[in-house]
């Protein structure tokens, strides 16, 4: 029997806010001081594990497996810290974007609700699966001490004894908390993707609205809406491209080092842990890539086709204005960092996978030889 679950835009927003809570991406309207204290404390806790992991690499320089594990955990922590810093730097822009999305969802008319629901139906299953995979991957790592001989989930080395029962439990809980911080850092990509899907929906609505423009005043109003969307896109791109760069960089390292574990002679339980991590990180980049690729289409070719189909029936003065809008719509909204991050799109993801698997195959040959 097929389970029919209706996920509305409001439910999707609430779920996303919950899963990224540890990144402090949604500041409350009250008690901002306590919120900032919690943010600083969270970053401190993550760095408190980062340093012992670096020490473990130095101390176990002759143990390649421990080095791989520590590097992967370090990547997760660096990704979390980088995204929290990004959230802090662009907190005003993100708060404004969040407010716009909340207000739009609350006041949407029937047509707007239909378009937004269509996009939520399109993406929620994948994003829900990815969010669950982030936290399940962390959980699989954290329960390692229950089925393996290791004492803690990581091989971190502390400047004090961890043989005491109380200290041992505190260290274990600390590593668990930081692990879920890393999961929240990955889940932040789902929030960015949610904003991108929202922007895509607004472009779809704008394209449909072009059919109802009949005079100069309505066209001016249409142009204003188009400019507002482009401003929204600029603010969204500022933070999203940095998050995407962090995710791509960490994912590349995680995939390569995780793949080495899979072809090693480690126990099956260890391979299962890292196998889940490799699959999760491989699919993680596609969260934002899928949304960004769709945005490229609706902000350019789809919008241009709608405008071109409506502009021919107007008077010459209005058609001239339409041609200016049409020219601007030829430039799609893209997410990239020149020289560091190519345009997020399906083509980019395919090239990324090809390069990652080529690197993995090269490493496998080197290890076997």
From TrEMBL:
Regarding the membrane, this protein is recorded as: Multi-pass membrane protein
**GO MF annotations in UniProt:** odorant binding; olfactory receptor activity
Species for this entry: Cotesia glomerata
Q: What is its main location?
A: membrane
| Bilayer-spanning residue ranges | 37-58, 64-82, 126-148, 242-262, 274-296, 348-367
Tell me a GO biological process for this protein. Answer: signal transduction
Q: Give yes or no: UniProt keyword Transmembrane helix.
A: yes
Origin superkingdom:
Eukaryota
Quote the protein name from its UniProt record.
Answer: Odorant receptor
**A cellular component term, taken from the record's GO annotations:** plasma membrane
Check the record and name the InterPro entries matching this protein: 7tm6_olfct_rcpt
Query: Member of which family?
Result: Belongs to the insect chemoreceptor superfamily. Heteromeric odorant receptor channel (TC 1.A.69) family.
Cellular localization per UniProt: Cell membrane
């Amino acid at each position: 029997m097929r389970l029919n679950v209706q996920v509305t835009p409001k439910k999707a927003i609430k779920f996303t806010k919950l899963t990224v809570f540890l990144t402090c991406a949604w500041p409350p309207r009250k008690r901002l001081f306590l919120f900032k204290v919690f943010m600083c404390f969270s970053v401190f806790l993550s760095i408190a594990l980062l340093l012992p992991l670096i020490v473990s690499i130095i101390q176990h320089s002759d143990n390649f497996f421990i080095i791989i594990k520590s590097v992967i955990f370090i990547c997760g922590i660096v990704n979390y810290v980088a995204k929290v810093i990004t959230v802090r730097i662009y907190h005003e822009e993100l708060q404004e974007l969040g407010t716009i999305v909340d207000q739009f969802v609350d006041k949407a008319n029937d047509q707007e609700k239909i378009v937004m629901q269509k996009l939520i139906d399109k993406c929620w299953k994948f994003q829900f699966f990815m969010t669950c995979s982030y936290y399940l991957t962390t959980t699989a790592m954290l329960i390692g001490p229950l089925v393996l001989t290791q004492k803690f989930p990581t091989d971190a080395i502390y400047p004090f004894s961890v043989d005491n029962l109380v200290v041992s439990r505190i260290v274990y809980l600390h590593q668990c908390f930081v692990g879920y911080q890393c999961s929240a850092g990955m889940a932040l990509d789902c929030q960015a993707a949610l904003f991108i899907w929202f922007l895509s929906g607004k472009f779809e609505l704008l394209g449909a609205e072009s059919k109802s423009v009949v005079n100069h005043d309505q066209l001016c109003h249409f142009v204003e809406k188009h400019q507002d969307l482009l401003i929204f896109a600029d603010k969204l791109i500022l933070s999203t491209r940095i998050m995407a760069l962090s995710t791509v960089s960490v994912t590349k390292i995680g995939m390569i080092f995780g793949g080495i574990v899979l072809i090693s002679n480690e126990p099956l339980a260890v391979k299962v842990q890292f196998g889940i991590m490799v699959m999760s990180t491989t699919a993680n980049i596609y969260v934002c890539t899928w949304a960004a690729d769709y945005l490229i289409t609706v902000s350019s070719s789809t919008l241009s086709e709608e405008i071109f189909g409506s502009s021919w029936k107007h008077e010459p003065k209005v058609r001239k204005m339409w041609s200016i809008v049409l020219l601007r719509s030829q430039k799609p909204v893209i997410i990239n960092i020149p020289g560091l991050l190519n345009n997020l799109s399906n083509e980019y993801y395919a090239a990324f996978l090809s390069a990652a698997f080529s690197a993995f195959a090269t490493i496998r040959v080197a290890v076997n030889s």
